[in-house]
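dude i think i finally got it to work??
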Amino acid sequence: MDDAVLLFATGFGLGWLPWSPGTFGSLLGIPLAWWMSGFTRGSQLGIMTFLLIVAVPICHVASLALGSGDAPQIVADEFMAFPIALLGLSVARQPWVMALAFILFRLFDATKPPPIDHIEAIGGGLSIALDDVMAAIYAWLVLVAILSLWRRHGRR
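look at this
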């Protein structure tokens, strides 16, 4: 069972890449976000809640198996949290919106602005998943602001 959890937690091996495993692992979140964008906002929230409830123990077990906290090989937190960056957006399936959400998510996940940088102190699977949830929320906030400005000023 631990092998299956570790396989999933490492993004089916993407987490073992020697460079940018988080970025490559996050790519698995794109089809997930695309699929979720076909549902109502309420359904999207339900799916996200389920994914995050599942992500915490998966990340925790993988962390114990790898002998460290938020090991770079663990990427399930990235691909399971990324869809939050597009939650409820009617334009989520537009390629430029998906790409911008991905770039913003990776930027916030990599730079860890406050309070993301403090979340890792919680420890365990909860902190592994929560820092990516916060990065996705930051990406969502910036994306909503950009889309709002684009709608207001870009369509003249």
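Helices lie at 2-9, 21-26, 29-36, 41-66, 76-81, 95-111, 116-119, 124-153.
im so relieved honestly
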